[in-house]
Amino acid sequence: MSEGYLEEQLNEGESFGEKRTTFYAAEITVAIQLLHQSGILHWDLKLENVLLSIDGHYKIADFDCRS
What we know:
Helix content: 25-40%
Order of helices and strands: EHHEE
Number of helices: 2
Number of domains: 1
Largest sheet: 3 strands, antiparallel
Distance between the termini: 37 Å
């Protein structure tokens, strides 16, 4: 596992087992829930806006400020 975009990992053919897939899906879901609870919506959530950090956790990126 290496740092980078979720999209790149999937395009490179890296397979995710059920346990890893469940962990990352839950992590992204919790992040979105926390954003929504704070009144923040992500206008462009897609694979290339999900980054894997060196500590093995996904981060949501590319927030566009709109009012």
